[in-house]
Amino acid sequence: MPLTDSLRDDILAAVPSLRAFAISLSGNADRADDLVQETLLRALANIDSFQPGSNLPAWLFTILRNLFRSDYRKRRREVEDAEGNYAKTLKTQPSQNAHLEFEEFRTALDKLPQDQREALILVGASGFSYEDAASICGCAVGTIKSRVNRARSKLAALLYVDGAEDFGPDETVRAVIGGSGG
Amino acid sequence: MKDLKSQASRNTTPGKGGLTPEIQSRIGHQLRAMYDDVVRQGVPDRFAELIKKLDTPGATPQVEDGGGSDDSSNGRV
């Protein structure tokens, strides 16, 4: 398909979510924007292979995801400044507590295996169907479903469940102390 | 504190997929909050310009400022 004005507009409209996907995957704002740029260049260079009427965002996400994967293999563990860098991209300055909670979430997300993280982001944040997510990741729909479930369980274990177990008695003690005081 | 205790036991009761609906929705919220924060930033100029530059069909994208472009050749007339 040739690069028409409307196609160009559609690509432009997909940029914000491409960036969000790239940042969620990489945890690094600068690297994410490089990924988006590379994705756009590839997409425009290969625009002829885009099927008119098919899902443009899914096509673009596929390119970005594959770029990230090949890039990731090359520079695994090279970039570790995820949080600090990411925080700079935040427009709204979260309150201290919200910020802490956010950092914890970000850290937990980074601990997920790559396959699970991308599946969770595509389905849980980008809003793709399981079918689209499967085609983006080049795997079966059932595989995506199980990756999303495992991702959720692991996040819960990292963030809430383990915490709740330690938290329980402690909180009870605090409640008792607090209760007798007031 | 009865309330806290019952709440705690409710939180650790596994639901679908070993997760309580409460925890599932918390994860969903945080994930989308992180994501949407970036989406709301819109399209940075750098990308808007990149896509605009590619007006001409078949034009090869120039990422860097091309030193040898037409505009910069006025020195060697």
| Rg from Cα of chain B | 27 Å
The total beta strand count of chain A reads 0
Name of the CATH first level of the largest domain in chain A: Mainly Alpha
Averaged pLDDT of chain A, please?
82
| Proportion of residues in helical segments of chain A | over 70%
Topology of chain B as a string of helices (H) and strands (E): HHH
Uncertain residue ranges of chain B: 1-12, 62-77
Based on secondary structure, the structural category of chain A is: mainly alpha
- What overall geometry of chain A do the principal axes of the alpha carbons give? globular
Percent in helix of chain B = 40-55%
CATH fold assignment of the largest domain in chain A: Rna Polymerase Sigma Factor, Chain: A
Principal-axis shape of chain B: rod-shaped
Give the percentage of residues in beta strands of chain A: under 5%
What is the CATH architecture assignment of the largest domain in chain A? Orthogonal Bundle
Q: Extract low-pLDDT stretches of chain A.
A: 79-84, 163-174
Order of helices and strands of chain A: HHHHHHHH
Which class do the helix and strand fractions of chain B yield?
mainly alpha
* Total DSSP helices of chain A: 8
Number of helices of chain B: 3
Could you describe the largest sheet of chain B, including whether it forms a barrel?
none
